């Protein structure tokens, strides 16, 4: 019998496993399941970007790079961020290439949090935020967002959630899993509060290019925020480059310097071929990105309409590629709904509670999949709903 | 671009009822739209794209480059239209470069293609010369990778 569990640290042993894992295990064994559970683009990385990675390998560029990433990579990031988001960052001291936003956020938390510090984040949210905070021996404080507000962060709710000891605020707009966004006015109110309470802001803008309604505004571009914001971004979603595992952080030099220490001991550097592919994406990837965004928007309109027709109330996500229908009319909780739907009709949706308690009563459906699959899922969900009494 | 046409060109296997649901139109409206596209000569037809290794178990396909003399025979169009009318001809294009017409033909076997070239093509007034190339193996057809199996096999079916 394996008794090695005694070696696992207390704060890791007590950390709950991602709610998504259980579903993955069941769905991966099902032959004809239709999965709306995939949190990545269904597009293959655009050819010219793959070609850049191949060419990098052919040239024998297989070495380590500067811990921060190649000069060229950081210069392209600097240009791209200035052009599309506003703030200008110095490639020498204010930009750090990472293994996706996941690493960037992890090292930001590890390099800024002291044990017992508190971190505010809005829920429902990406699965890693609260656990990553816990792993730093810090405390994660959720701020609830609601469907009536299209899951935008209400500045009043932020103020209400704040407590002494809060050091950092994690923002993610557009939001996985809700597609929520924050307009300029909301961000200005959030920024004002962050300045008032001297909060550092981690802004995960991984879905920013996939904004369907209005223009994306980065909180880092607002007055007084550049010096207290770490802008986190990557290539996985907009450029369909999940497997390249490449992202970056831009922020004030001292914070980036702290992150660099954790990064250089833990990771060394992001893979060079991924950095080179990313340079190509930044330089020439806009057309392919816009093409994919248009496809997502069309599919979004279809899936949201379909959920509403089926009586599962669904708001129109303003960004990202997830619909987040309200399933409370079925009388089930999120987990029961997702489990029964999977058992009875072999459709995989992720229970909203996997994204925090505020996701209760909702399920996440990715529309990053073919029309054929979305259509088929719709038919199966209709059959599933027909068989249960509705409120 | 017409929304029905755009969806069809994406290459997903959808019937008109599915297209109708996706676009919020209803199947009859999609049928009407398709009929209009046909009438306007925009949509010539719709065919399944078969894996050539299955399709060609009993068929061979060849591409024929044809050089043409236009004097006294009424220009390219007359000859190209005549060649296009043969049922063996799948497609026919006027080309720039070293030859004039590019013709794709299919037939039951190599001898039938050969027969088509010397009994039909070579006899057409204006055809100066032909060069025939047989297809050996297809890797991609009409935008579809022929052996796409395994390209994304490691993608998890549920991910955060």
Write the topology of this structure.
The complex is a heterodimer of chains A (391) and B (160).
Chain A: H1 10-13, H2 19-29, E1 34-35, H3 47-58, H4 71-85, E2 95-98, H5 100-112, E3 118-123, H6 129-135, E4 139-144, H7 155-161, E5 166-172, H8 184-196, E6 200-204, E7 229-234, E8 247-250, H9 253-266, H10 272-284, H11 286-309, E9 322-323, H12 334-345, E10 347-348, E11 350-351, E12 363-366, H13 371-386
Parallel strand pairs in A: 1-10, 3-4, 3-5, 5-6, 6-7
Antiparallel strand pairs in A: 2-8, 7-8, 9-12, 11-12
Helix pairs in contact in A: 3-10, 4-10, 5-9, 11-13
Chain B: H1 3-9, H2 16-23, H3 27-39, H4 52-55, E1 60-68, H5 75-84, E2 89-94, E3 101-107, H6 110-120, E4 127-134, E5 140-141, E6 144-145
Antiparallel strand pairs in B: 1-3, 1-4, 2-3, 5-6
Helix pairs in contact in B: 2-3
Task: Give a verbal description of the structure.
The complex is a heterodimer of chains A (391) and B (160). Chain A has 391 residues and is an alpha/beta fold. Chain A has 2 domains: 4-45 and 287-386, Aspartate Aminotransferase, domain 1 (Alpha-Beta Complex), CATH 3.90.1150; 47-284, Aspartate Aminotransferase, domain 2 (3-Layer(aba) Sandwich), CATH 3.40.640. Chain A is 41% helix and 13% strand. Chain B folds into 2 domains: 3-39, no CATH class; 52-137, Lrp/AsnC effector binding domain/regulation of amino acid metabolism (RAM) domain (Alpha-Beta Plaits, 2-Layer Sandwich), CATH 3.30.70.920. Helices cover 33% and strands 21% of the residues of chain B. Chain B has helices at 3-9, 16-23, 27-39, 52-55, 75-84, 110-120; strands at 60-68, 89-94, 101-107, 127-134, 140-141, 144-145. In chain B, strands 2-3-1-4 form a 4-stranded antiparallel β-sheet. In chain B, strands 5-6 form a two-stranded antiparallel sheet. The radius of gyration of chain B is 21 Å and the shape is extended.
């Amino acid at each position: 019998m394996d008794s090695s569990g005694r070696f696992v640290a207390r704060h890791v042993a007590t950390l709950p496993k991602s709610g998504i894992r259980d579903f993955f295990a069941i769905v991966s064994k099902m032959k004809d399941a239709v999965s709306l559970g995939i949190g990545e683009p269904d597009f293959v990385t655009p050819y010219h970007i793959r070609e850049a990675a191949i060419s990098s390998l052919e040239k024998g560029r297989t070495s380590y790079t500067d811990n921060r990433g190649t000069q060229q990579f950081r210069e392209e990031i600097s240009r791209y961020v200035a052009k599309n988001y506003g703030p200008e960052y110095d490639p020498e001291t204010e930009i750090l290439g990472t293994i996706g936003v996941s690493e960037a956020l992890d090292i930001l938390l590890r390099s800024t949090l002291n044990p017992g510090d508190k971190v505010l984040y809005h829920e429902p949210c990406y699965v890693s935020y609260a656990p990553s905070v816990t792993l730093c021996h810090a405390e994660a404080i959720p701020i609830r967002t609601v469907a009536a507000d299209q899951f935008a962060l209400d500045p009043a709710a932020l103020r209400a959630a704040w407590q002494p000891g809060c050091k950092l605020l994690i923002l993610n707009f557009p939001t996985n899993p809700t597609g929520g966004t924050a307009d300029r006015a909301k961000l200005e109110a959030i920024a004002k509060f962050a300045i008032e309470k001297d909060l550092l802001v981690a802004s995960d803008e991984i879905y920013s290019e996939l904004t369907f309604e209005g223009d994306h505004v980065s909180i880092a571009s607002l007055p007084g925020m550049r010096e207290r914001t770490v802008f986190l971004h990557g290539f996985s979603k907009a450029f369909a480059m999940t497997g390249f595992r490449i992202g970056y952080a831009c922020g004030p030099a001292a914070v980036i310097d702290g992150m660099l220490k954790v990064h250089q001991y833990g990771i060394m550097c992001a893979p060079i071929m991924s950095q080179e592919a990313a340079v190509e994406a930044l330089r020439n990837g806009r057309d392919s990105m816009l093409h994919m965004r248009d496809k997502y928007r069309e599919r979004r309109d279809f899936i949201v309409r379909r959920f509403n027709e089926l009586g599962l109330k669904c708001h129109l996500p303003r960004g990202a590629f997830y619909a987040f229908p309200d399933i409370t009319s079925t009388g089930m909780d999120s987990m029961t709904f997702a489990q029964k739907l999977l058992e009875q009709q072999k459709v995989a949706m992720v229970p909203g509670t996997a994204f925090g308690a505020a996701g209760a009563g909702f399920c996440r459906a990715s529309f990053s999949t073919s029309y054929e699959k979305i259509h088929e899922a719709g038919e199966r969900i209709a059959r599933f709903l027909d068989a249960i009494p509705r409120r | 671009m017409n929304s029905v046409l755009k969806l069809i060109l994406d290459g997903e296997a959808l019937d008109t009822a599915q297209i109708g649901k996706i676009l919020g139109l209803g199947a009859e409206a999609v049928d009407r739209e398709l009929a209009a596209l046909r009438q306007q000569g925009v949509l010539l037809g719709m065919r399944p794209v078969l894996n050539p290794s299955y399709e060609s178990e009993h068929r061979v396909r060849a591409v024929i480059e044809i050089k043409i003399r236009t004097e006294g025979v009424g220009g390219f169009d007359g000859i190209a239209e005549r060649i296009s009318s043969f049922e063996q001809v799948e497609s026919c294009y006027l080309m720039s470069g070293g030859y004039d017409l590019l013709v794709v033909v299919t037939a039951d076997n190599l001898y039938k293609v050969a027969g088509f070239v010397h009994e039909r093509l070579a006899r057409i007034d204006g055809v100066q010369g032909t060069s025939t190339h047989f297809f050996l193996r297809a890797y991609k057809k009409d935008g579809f990778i022929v052996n796409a199996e395994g390209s994304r096999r490691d993608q998890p079916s549920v991910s955060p």
